[in-house]
Amino acid sequence: MTLPDTGPESVQSGEAAHFRALESLYAAAPINQWFDSTLEIPSPGVARIRFTVDRRYHHAAGAAHGTAYFKMLDDAAFYAANSLVTDRFLLTTAFNLLFTKPIREGPVIAEGRWVSGQRRVFVAEARLIDATGEETGRGTGTFMRSRIPLAGLPGYRAG
Question: Would you say domain 8-152 falls under CATH 3.10.129.10?
Answer without folding.
Answer: yes
